[in-house]
Amino acid sequence: MVSASTMMMDLILFLEICLCIFGVAATEEKSIDQIIADASESSREMNFLYDSSNGMVKTEMDMIFPIDVWRELMQKNNTRSKRKAIRPLMFRWKTNEIPYTYGDYFTTKEKVEVQNSMDDWNALTCIRFREANDRDKNKIIFKNGQGISYYMYFIFEELKLTLESAPEAEIISKRITKSIILHELGHAIGLFHEQSRSDRDTYVSIIKRNVINGLFYNFEKRTNRDMNLYDTTYDYRSIMHYGSYLFSVNGEMTIVTKDKRYQKIIGKAKILSFNDVKIVNAMYNCSGNCPKKSCPRNGFVAKDCECYCPDLKKSIRKCPVSLRLIITDTSGDGGVTEPTEEKICRDNHRSCAVWAQMNECKLNPVYMLTNCKKSCDKCKGGKDETVEGKVK
Fold first, then answer.
1. Which of 64, 68, 205, 352 could form a disulfide with 14, with the two C-beta atoms 3.0–4.6 Å apart?
2. What CA–CA distance (Å, rounded) separates 27 from 29?
3. Residue list for the binding site for Zn(2+)
């Protein structure tokens, strides 16, 4: 227990979820929040839970706070300096390493699912989940069983807002789904639910009349003081987004997307979205040792100092070299040179070489000289490059 004389503030964040696979209706795949709801051991778990024995409040189905912290979160208009102590709810570990261990027996298949989820975060950010050793006081424990399923306890220094110490965290599991593990690891890294962003009303509507009586508090927005958005836009595809029917009383939608194309997408992410990755890279300053660089298409500089852009198929990929704008620091006060475009010459179709042999470069120059420059020998010193999809 940390005493008041230490000038530290206890900030306890509980994340609770039973990671189980249940029967999924053939007509429509279940969203992350529906899986969480199905995993509840009783209907009481869907209510606002306050445990007077330990002073904890449960909200949004998989997050539990101390009652005093919860009250602070609800006081949105409070501008006292004390609010600055609550700001690190978008917390981070003191280092980029997050140790883990298994507390009970897990099948090989279950461990592979957990490892694959951690590998995704490891590959695309500078976070490194690694096996814990005897020297690790702070770690995650994956535990197979029933009951309270996941909790984490963090202590932050009041001014520096860095993680100082934490007891063990437990994840209880029967059969693990990757999307749920990615979601809960997102909480462990420091992410809130996407639909609680301060700008969410621009992107989704919350239909209060469809929400179970007494549970509307689960749709509270976080203020910018509580939840740092790191200059990212709202993300319907986020692994942290819940589905359309969260806490519905009548089977009607409670979260309606302003862009109707995303209505059946929210809550059903299977992989990390571009913004999930971008915000964690920013949170942990993954490009801190890289030269200053500006990336196109709302891209970001990753731990390998390369630009990464959104991709419809893989969610994230290296920005094509032809689009990368390089900015180098030329002075101690942040002065930069003018952006210069790196040029690339390559074929954009796998049949370019065959078509070139058929004299298509002359017969169809409008297409060929634009899309098959390499095969038509129009590179002028440029080079071909294969764009990779993962951060090395």
1. 64
2. 7
3. 183, 187, 193
Side-chain half-sphere exposure of 369, counting CA atoms within 13 A? 8
Helix axes 178-189, 274-283, angle to 10 degrees: 30
Q: Could you give the angle at which helices 32-39 and 178-189 cross, rounded to 10 degrees?
A: 90
121 in helix, strand or coil?
helix
Q: Whose structure tokens read 């409070």? A: 78
Kindly report, residue by residue over 251-295, the tens digit of the pLDDT: 899 999 999 999 999 999 999 999 999 999 998 999 999 988 889
The binding site comprises 183, 187, 193
User: How far is the C-alpha of 73 from the C-alpha of 86, rounded, in Å?
Assistant: 8
DSSP string, 268-325: ---S--HHHHHHHHHHTTTTTTSPP-B-STT-EE-TTS-EEEEETTTEEEEPPGGG-E
DSSP state of 125: S
Annotated catalytic residue 184: yes
Q: Write out the two tokens for 241.
A: 């987004």
Tell me the CA end-to-end span of the chain in Å, nearest whole number: 40
CA torsion 278-281-282-283 (nearest 10°) is 120
Burial of 154 (0-12, 13-18, 19+ CB in 10 A): buried
pLDDT tens per residue, range 158-198:
212 222 233 455 554 444 678 888 888 888 888 888 998 98
Alpha-carbon distance of 131 to 128, in angstroms, equals 10
Distance of CA 310 to the CA centre of its chain: 14
At position 66, the amino acid (one-letter code) is P
Residue 274: per-residue pLDDT: 95
- Tell me 51's DSSP state: E
Active-site residue, from 16, 168, 170, 184: 184
List, in order of start, the domains of the chain with CATH numbers.
32-72+89-189 (3.40.390.10), 195-283 (3.40.390.10), 287-323 (no CATH), 347-378 (no CATH)
